[in-house]
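thread from #wetlab-drylab

HS: before we spend reagent money on co-crystallization trials with iron/sulfur cluster, can we at least see a predicted complex? here's what I'd submit
DV: go for it
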Amino acid sequence: MSSQEISNDEKLVQSIQKKYHEMLEEGVDPYEWAYAWRSEINRGGFRAVDFLMREIVDTGKCVGCAACVTICPTDVFDYKDEHPIDTRNDACVFCELCADVCPVLRPLDKDLQTLLGFKQPVKDEGFGPYNYAVIARAKDKEFLEAGQDGGVTSALLVHALENGSINGAVLGDVLPENPQVGVQKLATTAQEIRSCSGSRYTYSPNTMALTEAMRQDIKPLAVVGVPCQIDGVRQQQFSSIRLEVAKWYQQNVVLTIGLFCSESFTHEHISYIAKELDVEPQDIVNVNVKGKVIVELRDGREIIMKLKEFHPFARPACLYCLDYSAEHADIGVGGIGLSKWTFVAIRTEAGHKFWQAAVDADLFEIMPEETEPKAKELLIRLCNIKRNKPLPALMPTYQERVELGNTNPKSFYKDYKKPTDGGEQGK
Ligand SMILES: Cc1cc2nc3c(=O)[nH]c(=O)nc-3n(C[C@H](O)[C@H](O)[C@H](O)COP(=O)(O)OP(=O)(O)OC[C@H]3O[C@@H](n4cnc5c(N)ncnc54)[C@H](O)[C@@H]3O)c2cc1C
Ligand code: SF4
Ligand code: SF4
């Protein structure tokens, strides 16, 4: 298309992009960035899908949370290889929701802190707002054995399903032919929740199952996800663009459980393990990271590998993520160095309600968080490492990182010192 032939729709997209970049360059408060597109809503909106694809997907900054895909009221996107594809671009109705829910375009809205209903009094010791934390494990041996850590997540969900406080859960399952490749699952039975237990370190697009839940009207619904996925769901629930899809999420997602996450691994880590241990990928039953990598094989062997060997498999897109502890989840969970215990941070009133019901049903062995002070120290340290970066919009693109010769999310900002005045970072 020559410059004379640029359509009015395209001109508008370009003007929003310009406005957004001016804000970034002029050091405007990051919480104001969303006005670049929100100011267009009353004038009929614009083709936000083009804006999102250019700013986030084409630049390699997309973390794959699928929030844009599952919020789009006209099904513009497909999702492949951990990214949205705007297959039906012409179906865009200019609602702007896809851009508004993307957690990479801007920090989450400030008023989200109020909207989430954090349980009072709120503490913040460096791993996000929370009310209390415990270290717990499931009393039921099956949950404990199948669980990645203490089996708390699955036990809590099955209890919620059986007492009717949820009717389904958006989870991560695995491919039958490769148990380390995660796929989304809408679980509606206790057995389905149980069979999703354990962690896969590849990126599992759990939240893609939200569309199916909405289509089948499965509610109330729980969502388990890594922090980028929880952030996407929160943006969907509380977007200021109040279309039916956003309302559905707000009314029906009643519990979010966020898994602590430094980064996920690329699929190559599976072939690497298989080659190193001379086994087939389907023989790798479980991978767990505890300062070292513990690989459990189908024949019962447990092999320890060095975590350093896995640094090349850190997923490049995870650079654009600053959230380690799922700061916006109702409940945050992680193993943080503990063996077969889950560190559980109760953040919101909703999280407390679900947790307390499971505690009342005597599902868990529980220790006070103070029993393992090193766990909390490690948690805070890992959060700090991940927060010590500029906001993703201000980071180089994936292509620029290739040119700089470093696409590894673990080392890119290793020597960076984040300004302490808030300034351009605004977090
Ligand atoms: C990619 C990844 C990185 C992680 N990194 C850390 C870390 O650095 N530090 C730490 O303390 N904890 C980390 N965790 C969390 C930890 O592995 C456990 O998931 C958590 O402690 C809960 O254990 P559990 O026994 O209570 O859960 P379980 O009862 O075993 O349930 C686990 C749940 O996780 C879901 N799930 C499995 N794989 C994925 C996936 N790839 N993406 C989204 N959901 C999935 C399943 O659907 C299941 O519902 C990570 C998890 C993942 C998936
Ligand atoms: S980060 Fe999430 S919302 Fe943003 S473009 Fe990627 S999948 Fe869509
Ligand atoms: S590091 Fe962030 S972007 Fe990467 S999988 Fe974990 S939560 Fe998602």
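DV: Residues 8-101 form one domain.
HS: ok that's useful, forwarding to the group
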